[in-house]
Amino acid sequence: MIYLDYQATTPVAPEAAAAMRPWIEEKFANPHSPSREGREAAAAIEVARKEVELAVGLEGGSLTFTGSATEAINWAIKGTLEKAPAGRNRIVTVRTEHAAALDTCEWLERSSVDVTYLPVGSDGLLDLDDLKAALDESVALVAVMLVNNEIGVIQPVAEIARLAREAGAPMLCDAVQGLGRVPIPEGPDLVAVSAHKIHGPKGIGALWTRKGAEPQPFIHGGGQEQGLRSGTLSPALCAGFGAAAKLAKERFEPDDRHVEGLWKTALEALMPGWIVNGSVDQRYRGNLNIRRKGVDAARLISDLRDIAFSLGSACASGSGRPSHVLRAIGLSDREARSSIRLGFGRYTTEQELTGALQRINEAAEAQERFAA
Ligand code: PLP
User: Fold this and answer.
1) Which of 26, 185, 214, 224 is the most exposed, having the fewest neighbouring CB atoms within 10 Å of its CB?
2) Active-site residue 315, yes or no?
3) Does ligand 1 have an atom closer than 6 angstroms to the CB of 98?
4) Which atom of ligand 1 is least distant from the CA of 73?
5) Which residue among 105, 173, 238, 315 is the active-site one?
């Protein structure tokens, strides 16, 4: 199988698997117990926390582990609204956010929170004038992602955070697709990340919070994580996340160069038949979301079962609904249904990519011949 679905998840790095192994096979102490073994597990968690903090790279805050980035985003949004000053009852977000943010906002709208969903241009980018116009003293939170999971475009997070601050509102940045791939800009007050997008294990995420911006607790219980997120932590998952984060920081430049090379190879192989969806310049280059006239993307995926790639978003795949992101950038249903997302990264070889692209092109041409 050739794996070209790096936005859905990434292969676990051998270093992350090795860091997890002792905590699965030999050591089982509860990291919150005062025994010697418990303290050893707690110490391993703190090492991992530091490594993830360093990979996030922001000053003036701390990191709380969660069960996923979805949980971190739910917690950040709901817990910030809960502690917002009287009169601040509105969230400003963008139509192309991940479902973890959009569905949480929709859920809050049922309990009388107001939400402003800002549009994006055909390049997938937010217009800062639209944001300025939406900000006033009723805003409790601005939530905008760094790198879009479907089309890879990079939102101007530093400017967004500055405008949010000027309006007196904290900013949440979903940096799940950005961590380890692009620098996380200074400015946001809350940053959500996930281990499995950086070659770590599934089932663990984290919320970085600027001091003073900690949301109200969302999960109540044993008071772990400074009372912010109860529940026994998994030393194995934390250690895997920490090792993956350390590697992501160390390999940032070589990974970036590798991805840039793969991007060039892909464009040469795919153009002029395919069109890139969203901005080409303001984009993480390991995400190639493309469309081709007349292609039935779902059929392409089923024709090429030994190549793993995706229809727009892994989350929306199979739902039959055209992607909300592709619609937001102005694509027709037909164009959205002829779009595929190719995601590559650290462990993708040039040879694998070239071989897969040749077969994708052949399958697309065969569809065209059949339709003619
Ligand atoms: N945000 C973005 C941009 C994502 O791509 C994803 C995962 O696909 C998530 C949030 C949710 O992350 P997790 O799988 O850790 O819940």
Assistant:
1) 26
2) yes
3) yes
4) 10
5) 315
Within 43-82, strands assigned E span: 61-66
DSSP-derived pairing of the beta strands 90-94 and 139-143: parallel
**pLDDT at position 247:** 98
pLDDT in tens, 5-23: 999 999 999 999 999 999 9
- Give the tokens for residue 141: 């939170």
* pLDDT value, residue 318: 56
Our answer on whether the CB atom of 100 is closer than 6 Å to any ligand 1 atom is yes
Beta bridge partners of 339: 291
**Per-residue pLDDT tens for 284-330?**
999 999 999 999 999 999 999 999 999 865 455 556 678 999 999 99
Residue 271 in this model has a pLDDT that exceeds 80: yes
- Distance CA(79)–CA(60), nearest Å, equals 20
User: Which of 69, 118, 62, 128 shows the shortest CA–CA distance to 94?
Assistant: 118
Is residue 104 within 8 A of residue 74, CB to CB? The reply is yes
**Alpha-carbon span 369 to 349, nearest angstrom:** 30
Pocket test for ligand 1, best of 96, 103, 177 (most atoms within 8 A of CB): 177
Distance CA 84, CA 90 (A): 10
Q: What is the pLDDT of residues 210-235, one digit of tens each?
A: 999 999 999 999 999 999 999 999 99
Residue 307 β-bridge partners: 2
Q: Is the pTM of this model over 0.90?
A: yes
Distance between CA atoms of 252 and 266, rounded to whole angstroms?
21
Which residue do the tokens 């050739």 mark?
A: 2
b/e code 175-208 from CB counts within 10 Å (16+ = b): bbbbbbbbebbebbbbbbbbbbbbbbbeebbbbb
What is the CA 15 to chain-centroid distance, rounded? 22
Q: Which residues pair with 172 in a beta bridge?
A: 143, 190
Radius of gyration of the chain (CA): 21
Q: Would you tell me how many other CB atoms lie within 10 Å of the CB of residue 112? A: 7
